[in-house]
């Protein structure tokens, strides 16, 4: 069953708000937090960086 409806301007605006206002910041926080967690865990296992 094919749904060939064309999205309206309102649908596009809602999708943009969802992606730009909610998803992008949440994804950015998750990526930076995940990277920080990886660095933290690697320092617990391998020791602090030597310089």
Automatic annotation (TrEMBL):
<keyword id="KW-0472">Membrane</keyword>
<feature type="transmembrane region" description="Helical">
    <location>
        <begin position="14"/>
        <end position="41"/>
    </location>
</feature>
<dbReference type="InterPro" id="IPR004448">
    <property type="entry name" value="Nitrate_reductase_NapE"/>
</dbReference>
<keyword id="KW-0812">Transmembrane</keyword>
<keyword id="KW-1133">Transmembrane helix</keyword>
<dbReference type="InterPro" id="IPR010649">
    <property type="entry name" value="NapE_TorE"/>
</dbReference>
<protein>
    <submittedName>
        <fullName>Periplasmic nitrate reductase, NapE protein</fullName>
    </submittedName>
</protein>
<dbReference type="Pfam" id="PF06796">
    <property type="entry name" value="NapE"/>
</dbReference>
